[in-house]
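Hi U.,

Before I forget, here's the chain from the pilot set. I'm dumping it here mostly so it's searchable later in email.
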Amino acid sequence: MTVDVLRYAAFTVDGRGGNPAGVVLDARGLDAAEMLAIAADLSYSETAFLVPRDGRPNVYDVRYFSPTQEVPFCGHATIASAVALVERSPADELIFHTPAGFVNIATFKNDDGELMAELTSVAPRVSESPPDLLPAVLGALRWSADDLDSAYPVLLANAGSEHLVLVTKTRQRLADLDYHFDDLANLMREHGLVTVLLVWPESKRRFHARNPAASLGVVEDPATGAAAAAFGGYLRELGMIGRNAEFRISQGVEMGRPSELLVGVIAGEPGVRVTGAAHPIED
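Structure:
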């Protein structure tokens, strides 16, 4: 069968940069092996496969595949899919049933007329990491414990997929990312990590991030919506942001793919909101 694979960059800045994602808007008839083969051939960090629910407009079952495995949730492919859908059939709200759970997406145009999508994640959870994980990850990253900001504890954070949160003291430490790919990939697969979330806090409203994604066969993700949602849950759990709060994450700069993610928490709302733009990738 012929499969129409769209290519979008999500969390773009002024139409540039962002994280490339594959999008299949109608994946009916595809099995998991075929989805994985398509994702591997495309070689983006994730590709989203959508199946419309019969008789329910704007409601989809969605699966996400990296080049090496299926993942339970992917934020940038969700944003890309929402924009691709709404460009073809306008809708203010979409509902995605993902392996991680129910995800609501609102779409709107910003003041510049740019189409935006805002996902609301599943309720995040934050947990202690195994005691042997941190030293092993630091070794693979070629970091030391002294590089970490003690105000931000090392924890696992999950808003649909698992991430290890490491916050560094300096922008330079974040910029000088040079890690041992195979060692980190093996550790991440052993512990079920989709990315390691490396963060430098410029301020309480602006964070800079990098996301090694070796477990997915990808050196680095230039914009990671699932990790952004998880980080929002992490900050809320630690009381580092208010019950109603917004902050921005800048990512992908060192890769030449500048990206921006707006993260928000709303009092009484279990999930975390992540907002961004997406644009088709020109051949």
